[in-house]
Amino acid sequence: MDHKAFSRRIDRLRLAMAREQLDAFLIHDRNNTAYFSGFKGTSSIIVISESAALFFTDFRYIQQAGEEMRGFDVRLMTQGGATELAAALKQLKPHCIGFEGAINYTQYLQFKCAAARAKMVESGTMPATLRSVKEPWEIEIMAANQRLNERIFQWATRSLKPGMTERRLQKGIRIRMLDAGCEESFDTIAASGANSAHPHAHVTARRIRKADLLMIDMGVKRDGYNSDLTRTVAVECASPRARAIFDIVLEAQERALAAVRPGAVCRDVDAVARSFIASAGYGEYFGHGLGHGVGLDIHEYPRLNPRSTVVLEEGMTITIEPGIYIPGFGGVRIEDLVVVIGDGYRNLTKTGKRLRFVGR
Fold first, then answer.
1. Domain total in the chain
2. Is 145 in the same domain as 216?
3. Mind listing the pLDDT tens digit for each residue in 146-171?
4. The domain that contains 319 carries what CATH number?
5. Which residue in 12, 60, 139, 228 has the most C-beta neighbors within 10 A?
């Protein structure tokens, strides 16, 4: 990515700041600083105003930043940057400063002190909204990551045998990711039998058994971007009840995917899957949102849930992942990663979704 692309991102941020009547914006989140500058280090604060773009980092990265940053005034910071930040804001004289909501209280006090008499406004959705619409090159990185993710999933299901523990399966997936030069987007989930009734199950030493439902939720992160995939498979065979639940979740997912398009409201897309599952008698067993944005973070703006009034836009990368989770029995979730395009969506996930039998 060239430096002009980062300049365009800063320009879009300045336009958003003008609409919200913000004179300056403080960027502290590591992924947001990377998004607006390309910097990959662990210590950075960016200050954007109408006329200035300041980049603060500590001694470990000051030489790197000086060599890599274009369009930024690179400055050394010490002790978290409180003194240097205060001096910069005093010079800029902003009346109203926006900042990300995802900061801890200590950081807030640091920013508040540095801002002196300026008004501090939480505007976390501003960078989140800008990041939600991906550029073509970002989408292609995510598509490539999803293809790798799926190859590792296919390996995992081929190697699985009854008697293997959930933990061993998870470990094998992790090793494959490391060997491929990437990292986990999140802790891989390998939940079998009744454990699959937990949407975000903790992997255990339970042995995977014949007739289990096995839910695998995994993602790889490479070149800064995440991928996400969930498939539920059956070990050797499946009960009629398990098959019926699987078919309901699959139909709900297909219906929701058909509703994805620019202009669709997130809660309306969520309602398509949720109402179908409820009509089948399992409404109380689908308690999480239908999906979420994916990008530099594994969970990004927008969220698809019953409350979200966000309107889908072309270029947003989102998951569609309905599920049914029955305590003591098991659960089914099916998740695809898609990008919103002009006439609907492009599915970045190619793995089949019909009930698959493994371990035979």
1. 2
2. yes
3. 999 999 999 999 999 999 999 999 99
4. 3.90.230.10
5. 228
For CA atoms 248, 273, 293, 136, the dihedral sign is: positive
Token code pair at residue 351: 């793995």
DSSP state of 259: T
Residue 40: CATH number of its domain = 3.40.350.10
Query: Which amino acid appears at position 9 of this protein?
Result: R
Same domain, 14 and 122: yes
Alpha helices in 71-135 (DSSP H): 82-92, 105-115, 125-132
Q: Which two tokens stand for residue 297?
A: 């973070």
Query: What tokens were used for 130?
Result: 């800008």
- Averaged over 234-244, what is the pLDDT? 98
Indicate left, alpha or beta for 116 from its phi (over 0: left) and psi (-120 to 50: alpha).
Answer: left
Q: What CA–CA distance (Å, rounded) separates 32 from 27?
A: 7
Among 272, 276, 186, 168, CA closest to 229: 186
Tell me which of 130, 150, 169 is where a domain ends: 130
Interhelix angle for 30-37 vs 125-132, to 10°? 50
Q: Quick check: helix, strand or coil at residue 74?
A: strand
Instruction: Using the predicted structure, report yes or no on whether residue 2 has a pLDDT greater than 70.
Output: no
Q: What does pTM read for this prediction? A: 0.94
Q: Using CA atoms, how far apart are residues 172 and 168, in angstroms rounded to an integer?
A: 6
In which element (H, E) is residue 244 found? helix 240-258
pLDDT, averaged across the chain: 95
Domain boundary among the residues 98, 130, 162 is at: 130
3-class SS at 327?
coil
The residues near 224 (Cβ < 8 Å, ≥ 6 apart) are: 31, 34, 40, 141, 296
- The H or E element containing residue 133 is none
